Amino acid sequence: MRRLASILALLPALAFAADFFIAPGSNYEYMVESASGSNNFYFAPGTYVNTNGPLTIGAGNAAQLIATGGASQTWLVAAPTSRVVDASLSAYYVRIEGFTITGGDVASGYGGGVLFRNGGRGRLVDCVVTSNRTGTQFGGGVAYADLIDRCTVSHNYAGQRAGGVYYARRLVNSAVLSNEAVISGGGVWDSFGTNTVVAWNRSGRAAAIYSGATSYAYSNMTVIANVTTNTVTSGQVHGGSFFNSTFAWNTNAGPMLGGTYLYSCVVASNVSAGYGGASGFSYQYSSVFNGNSGPANHSLFSSSYDMLNCTVLNQGGAAYSVGMVQPKSDSVPLYNNLFVNCGTNIYRFNLAAVTGTNVGASLITNAFEFLPDDPPYRLPPDSPLIDAGSGDFVSYPFDLYGRDRTHLGGDPDIGATEWTATDLPPDNGAARKRRIIGLLFGKDN
Ligand SMILES: [Ca+2]
Question: Please, which contacts does 250-254 make with residues 24 or more away whose CB atoms are closer than 8 Å?
């Protein structure tokens, strides 16, 4: 009976779903705001300037706004001192596709450009969200989105946190560029991201991405050239879990700080003026660190946690009086790592500099150990590092390229890659996803 009632409740919305065609100069605000259910509003190319505060989409209105000419030809512009779109959603999904969304300006409140209220069920596809701001709150560009897909979020500003995107359930195939937040999270805050570039953002802390929990997961991200202005206690990235991602050319603070987990990542050519030029307070698995730099007397891996099966190249460790790696404590596992051209004073436990050649099943060497690939991270087939690691420390079972170490037999190799007789493709299958979800959420799959 209850089921029948819920089906009947849907009928009016379905019955009145319709297509509307909107041209510049029409009263699109009234048409969209007074609708209910799931209607399609097709906007012709042109500029649409709100006159009555934000374009407000109320509960029960699952408006689908589609700009037929795309974001380069269709501009949706805020009225003075208001955001561009304000969607108050309870059960429906709003979709906004193909617009340039700009000019949002709210003195306080979340979402300077677009705000999806009540749980964030709105979707932005093929949009450019640019030059919006919130004076005292979070999310200069967008706040609470279910999906941001193939969008550019750029040049937005938050007087507090999250200059570009605040809380997106799926931030995919997008670019978050040149946004600014005064306190932290210049680009992105508390989201789940895939295939997205985060570049040239700026903030006091965590200029690129701030995440309050490990379960905020990001894969195939490119985090480059962000500038964090607090050099001592902050990185470009704070928290979260990153898989198969690249961090490069970030400046002023180290690439990550604050409990970030790195899995199969590459961290290269970052320049830090403070602690942790390569990584700080973070966890490292099957990752490569190449050519990062920091000031004298500050470890390149500052107060680090687990460092397992990593390859560390060209870090110039001899210049750093506290060593290359400064573990958080004596009990932090540092195993199966390969250090090449990092000097001899590599890491310490409780102020003890370690200068040996094999510590914790890690190898310290200045010899070239790789195949002549570009980048040169694979071991040659006759390398003594093959199967030379400790099998007791493979808590993340994949190598730099996503190959399952535990299916290849033998002990793990030292360094970020696992040698195979045949060049096996990465394991991108369901088993891998289940195991990664298990890592994030504590479920044993
Ligand atoms: Ca092996």
Answer: 250/207, 250/208, 250/223, 250/224, 250/225, 250/226, 251/225, 251/226, 251/227, 252/227, 252/228, 253/207, 253/228, 253/229, 254/278, 254/279, 254/280, 254/292, 254/294, 254/302
